Amino acid sequence: MTGDADKADEVEEDIEGAADDGEVDSDDRELRGEDSFSLKRKVKKDCDSRKRLEEKLEETRIQRQVQDYDFDGLD
Question: How far apart are CA 52 and CA 57, in angstroms?
Fold first, then answer.
């Protein structure tokens, strides 16, 4: 019985060691690739959303400046 327990401990240590060493099997690589693609798509979407928000904020800022300075009354 103790032999089985020792083997189980060794297997567990090997698994932990493989994770620490950066060893990854092909299934993990595929999952990581999918996660990477999803992450890139999410970052792109967030970037686009941020850009639209910044454009709206800039438009609002310009409109307020025009109202504050009343550039139309200078003619």
Answer: 9
Structure confidence at residue 48 (pLDDT): 95
Band the pLDDT of 25: cuts 50, 70, 90.
Answer: low
Residue 11 CB-half CA count within 13 A: 6
Q: Taking residues 22-34, report their average pLDDT.
A: 59
Element counts in the chain: helices (H) and strands (E): 2, 0
| Spatial contact of 71 and 63, defined as CB atoms under 8 Å apart | no
**Token pair in block for residue 3:** 């032999």
> Which two three-digit tokens encode residue 50?
């941020």
**What global pTM score does this model have?**
0.46
Q: So where are the chain's domains?
A: 2-74
* Burial of residue 60, with CB atoms counted within 10 A of its CB: 0-12 exposed, 13-18 middle, 19 or more buried: exposed
Residue with the larger pLDDT of the pair 59 and 67: 59
